[in-house]
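Quick start: what a row looks like.
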Amino acid sequence: MSRLRPGRRTFATLAILLLLAVAGSDFFIAEFWLSHPMLTAIISALVVVVLSVAVIGVSPQIGCDPVIPSGVEMLFHRLGSGTSGAE
């Protein structure tokens, strides 16, 4: 069984179903998407956001550790401690 919490599992499933629905809609209502390019761009951007949130929300639960580049880590350390960088 999956180690995901039920809320995250549901969101991941809905994100996959959304991706399948959008991909399938290209076969059924292709003329609509071709005649409405602005709406197509907005919908595609929203789908990317939903899929990104689903992947980011699920990945820490399946053993992926977030990687923070050392430069970013040093920047946050300097901002938090109030030093100018001369150590």
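That is the whole record. The chain is about 70% helix and 0% strand. Residues 6-81 form one domain.
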